[in-house]
Amino acid sequence: LNKYRSMIVGVNTKVPLDNGTYTTAINFDNAATTPPFYSVEKEVRDFLPWYSSIHRGRGYKSMLSTEVYEAGRDIVKSFVKADNKKDILIYTKNTTDSINMLAFILSQEKDGRDVVLSTWMEHAANDLPWRDKFTVDYIEVDQFGRLSLEDYEEKLKKYKNRVKLVTVAGASNVTGYINDIHLMAAMAHRNGAKIHVDGAQLVPHVAVDMKDFESDEHIDYLSFSAHKMYAPYGCGVLIGPKTTFEDCIPCCVGGSIIKLITHERIWWEEPPQKNEAGSPNLIGIVAMVSAIKTLSKIGMSNAYNVEKNLHDYAFSKMKSIPDIKFYSSPDKQETIGVIPFNIEGVHHSLMSAILSYEAGIAVRNGYFCSHPYCENLLGLSAKDMEDLMNDSASLFPGIVRVSFGIYNDHAEIDKLVCFLKQIASNKKYYIDKYSNSRGRY
Ligand code: PMP
């Protein structure tokens, strides 16, 4: 039995099945969000009696709350080894919020660098915020969905001094591939560009080291979300050099971020406070910091090894399922615990419904907010997508994804494989039974 299992809230929850009985829920949708640690639940409960307004409050509880809020920054920064002297940490709602903020702020710098290099692998959160503010080009992926460093080099050469930023997922939420962010950073820096890493799928699974600024390979900007690392929804971070945030207009404006306002002038607070308008999610921050303390105790290399073991075990077992098709090649690239697949003849949306109703197993299906990447993996062109959008009766092709957390175990994987084999061998029965189920794509 996985020793981390007992640290997680809700692992023994029973869910209803189609046949009227109940079974212990299996969660293989950890790339979407993870259940919280018990330590997070406890720390939030212990903190609630001390919860109060932060910053300007002079009551004892306010001062204590402010201290907790401010001290959290250093704990999170040291978890990813941010540069202590130069980097600041801004609390945000999530990765999406962080990237929107960064795009808004960088677009104010008038330095003649108007190009952002994104990639074909990105989640919409690391694509759309750049589109209306910069000329965006996308680094290509190869036939296995791996990022092409050759194309990256070519694009850096093509745009020369125009590249302001390279923005890349630390790990893909679809294939799980881990990108060589430090090599990519060195390549960006040699061209005078900076790098932003979307750490939403990296930071929860791999030891991340942003490195200090003297290193050519340092990561300039990093964003991630607490809800993918065993804390609940609602809190994320953006880390980067303080200088970036000093002379800009903040992305979101309002209270808490100004020293003084007249109708003629605004005197902003110093970053990071300048970038945290409105009342903050203090409980979310307590939860995030608590989750990070627990992950630090576990050790990120242990977390990585547990998940790698689960991934390799599942992959080797799933290979024997009839008509299975995988969309990643983990033997060709380092990955986190994500496996994208389909069983030929069973629609992806139907597959996740069947697994839920028949076995209490939660997986995700569709395009996972990484549409161009999935379209490419499925061999669909932009024209194919237009045609599908114009056909109201079309069942969109898509992918089924299982994604592991540190608490999953081999017995759960055995159950998944057993059900997948059963479905693959009795397709007609299951299709007829659930043919009215249509998931979101
Ligand atoms: N980037 C990646 C790679 C992700 O997987 C996700 C979440 N699925 C995001 C960004 C966005 O994260 P959030 O919804 O927490 O903002």
Automatic annotation (TrEMBL):
Residue ranges of domain Aminotransferase class V in the record: 26-416
Alphabetical UniProt keywords: Aminotransferase, Pyridoxal phosphate, Transferase
InterPro entries from the UniProt entry: Aminotrans_V_dom, Aminotrans_V_PyrdxlP_BS, PyrdxlP-dep_Trfase, PyrdxlP-dep_Trfase_major, PyrdxlP-dep_Trfase_small
PROSITE patterns found in the cross-reference section: AA_TRANSFER_CLASS_5
Catalytic activity: (sulfur carrier)-H + L-cysteine = (sulfur carrier)-SH + L-alanine
Cofactor: pyridoxal 5'-phosphate
UniProt-listed Pfam families: Aminotran_5
PANTHER family per the UniProt record, alphabetical: CYSTEINE DESULFURASE, CYSTEINE DESULFURASE 1, CHLOROPLASTIC
Family (UniProt): Belongs to the class-V pyridoxal-phosphate-dependent aminotransferase family. Csd subfamily.
Protein name per its UniProtKB record: Aminotransferase class V-fold PLP-dependent enzyme
Organism: Ruminiclostridium herbifermentans
